[in-house]
Structure formats: C-alpha cells, structure tokens
Design a protein that fits this description.
binds phenylalanine; binds sodium ion
Length: 500
Amino acid sequence: APIDRGRFSNKTVFIMAAIGSAVGLGNIWRFPYVAYEGGGGAFILPYLVALLVAGIPLLLLDYAIGHSQRGSAPLSFARLSRRLEFIGWWQVAICVVISVYYAAILAWSVQYVGFSFTQAWGDDPETFFFADFLQAAETGVTLDFVPAVLIPMVIIWAVAIAVMALGVQKGIGATAVIFIPVLLIAFGALVVQALTLPGAIDGLQTLFEPNWAALLDPAVWASAFGQIFFSLSVGFGIMITYASYVGRKIDMTGSGFVVGFANSGFELLAGIGVFAALGFLAQASGAAVADVVAGGIGLAFIAFPAIISEAPFGALLGVLFFVSLVLAGFTSLVSILEVVISAVRDKLEMSRIAATLAVTVPMAAISILLFTTTSGILVLDIADYFINRFGILLVALVAMLAVAWAVRRVPWFADHMSRYGSVRLGRWWVVLVTFVTPVLLAIMLVLELVTAIGEPYGGFPAWMLGVFGWGVAGAALVAGILLSIPKWKATTPLEAPEHD
Ligand code: PHE
Ligand code: NA
C-alpha cells in the first residue's frame, strides 16, 4: 500500500510552517543590505513590483503544483509528466547542497549566543571570526580540523534530525508554531533595544533616504527580484512539498498572500533593527553609517559583535540577535530537509523514520566534516553564490517554462486554486506565470551569467570556482536527471488524484 505521507492539521499550521521557511537568514542579514544598496527608500518600488509581479505569483504556482498533485517535488512533476520528474530531483539536489552549509551558519550562530556573554572576540571581531574561531585557510584548500565548530554542528544536526523524524505535523508544524512567535518576540525586543541606542536615527535615515536615481539602474531591479525569489523560498521544491501536506479544501491563495506579506513585513522589521544598530556602531566608532554598513557573514559575525561590545546591555542585544538567527534559520533548514526526505519517501515508499535517517545522517556527516575543516567557509562562500544563481534561479525558470509551455497546465492550476481560494486566480495570474515572470527570470539569469563569466567571483582561483561553483551547480542538474531514471513502484499511482 502507498505510504502515509503526513499532513498539516490545519491552515494555521501550514501558514506558520511556510512563514518559517520563508523567514530566514535572508530576511535578517540579506534584505537590509540589499535594500540599502538598491536605493534605500526608493527600493520599495522595485521590491513591491517584484513581490507582486513575480514573487507571490510564483509562490502560488508552487502551491498549485504541490496541492493539486499531492506529492513531493519529484512525484508532483512526475504526475504532470514523467519527462518532467528530473526537475523535482534537481530541486532535491539543490536542497541537499544548501542544507549542508546552512547548518554550519546556524551552528556558528549558536556559538555566538554564548560569545555574546564572554565577548570572546575582544576588540577585533574580524580576526577573531576568521583566524581564531574558524581558523580559515587563507589560500587554497586544507583539511585541518577545527574542533570549536564541532559541538554546535552536532547539536544543530541532532535537533534537526529529531524534528524531521517526528514528521510533518508533530515535527515541522509544531516547531514552526512555537518558533515563529518566539522569533517575533525576540526580534521585536531587539528592534526596541536598537532604537534606544544613540545614533539609531542616523542609521534609519541612511537606510530609508531614497536614492531615486537607483530606479534607472537595471541591476537594482534585478537585485529586487533576486531578493524576493530567495526570500520567499520559491521555485526550488519547498513550497511544492509543504503544499502537498495541506487539506484539499484549504484556502491556498489567501494563505499565499499572508505568507508573502508576512515575509516582507519581517524584512522591513529587520531593516529597521539592523540599521538602528549600525547607526549606533557608526556613532560609537566615529565613522559614517555608510562606512560600517555590512550584510551577510560580515554583518552577523563582525559588525554585530562590535555593536555588542559597545552597546549598553550588549549581551542582551547579542542574545536577541543570535537567537533570532538560530530560530529563523532553523525553520528554513527544516523546510529544505523536508524536500529531500519527502522525495525519498515517495519514491522508495519508505517509513518516515527510515527515510529521515537514510537522508539526514549522510548529509549531517558531510556537513560536519566539511565545516570542521579550515576550508569550510571558502567552499560555503562559493557554493552559496553559484547555487543561488545557477541552481535556484535556473531551476525555477525551467520549472515555470515546463509547466506553462510543455504541459500547459497554468489555466488548470488557476481553476484548482480558485476553487477554495479566497483570492480568485484569473487571467492576470495566468499571464504573469506564463509570460511575464519567465521573461523576467530569464533576463536576470543572463545578467548573472554575464557577471559570473566576466569577473571571477570573489577573486577565487579558477579551479575552485570550477569545482565548488560551476561543478556543484552542474552536479545538481546531473543528479536530478540520473535520479529521475528509476521507475516508480506499482503502488504509487502516477495519475494525479481527483479534485476532491
Ligand atoms: N527564504 C529563506 C530566507 O529568506 C532562504 C532559504 C530558505 C534558503 C530555505 C534556503 C532554504 O532566508
Ligand atoms: Na525570507
């Protein structure tokens, strides 16, 4: 008999899980920086356009695929057409790559919760992070062992495996229902504390001051679309998987708008908190805000430690910040792991526990081995850049084109979604998903390709970019194709189930 795939017990749990996936490191350490670089207050325009024209429509397409086909990414695509199954496995492979390094960032954040009390970084957070904490190799790849990261990595993976083993509702759903409100409280408290710091207003002014000229720069528009795609977790299997666990009569379109706006709301909140804190850092160090602006790893592990050292009640600020990173990131990690587990379960008809262990134990082993060596961060940096572009963006484009043009299912999906949806998906959605969003995605990809070929990313040697960048992104596609070859068991029907 077919396996019991599991389900979310109601709409709220599904929405929480979807918000849990969407709200991640991207909201906290990526958005504020991207918005600042993209024209500050003026960025609101390209950002809203990207959200409404591409982000939410693509989110709804993912929902439509998973909710109507009721399968993991590979099963859902196989049900649309056996020839499209490789897209689902390609998404699975991308999720494997991302989770291997996403877990490492979470582990560092766990460690930095503790460092917030001891201020282990002294007066040089940058040297501390790279040289003392990670013991990063300056050049080339070395495999020396760095024990400091081992314990938090084991903890993150152990907790993640336990959550995955508990299943869709008791594991993923319950985690999101607890973590998301706690995250909101913790980050809300951080924003309040940051706003009381001297210099906070300068920070906000720097973020929101509109640079209208930025609107004429195509790169700014591209970065708005890039931020939205990454931030909503669309196009690489996550939302297909989660939607397949939702009851048939649930309002999926209304849910999509709630998730989209909740994610953007959290980005705005993060922008305020982060720039208020950066405004303080600028004042404390006698610099201009523009000179202390940072994003990503630099923001979390270099700028924030400096802020924590200077601020009154700095330890509290640090705990709130790093706990927020851990909570936001963990619910995202869980969502990418589920893409993989769900796919393996569907194809091999495995039990929850068996599939969880078969998938996560090897991934944990690779992740821990890679990131307890001195080269972990170099690999992370390169793999992240390439997989975001020539993994996530590319597979999203291929998936859209396949659904819209190979199997021509978009109008059918509009009907499916409108059946119980509070927002009707009419012609506007069909036109967006069939023509507008694919064209925009294709333009972005070409721009990214030109950049990536024109200037070697991060000045890394060609062989490293070849192996950890192009190689990893290409391997995900090849893996997708290979994994789609084996036949399905006779017990898993490949026709999509009826409407209700
Ligand atoms: N949407 C997440 C964020 O904004 C990103 C993400 C989620 C990446 C899940 C990978 C997997 O941070
Ligand atoms: Na996000």
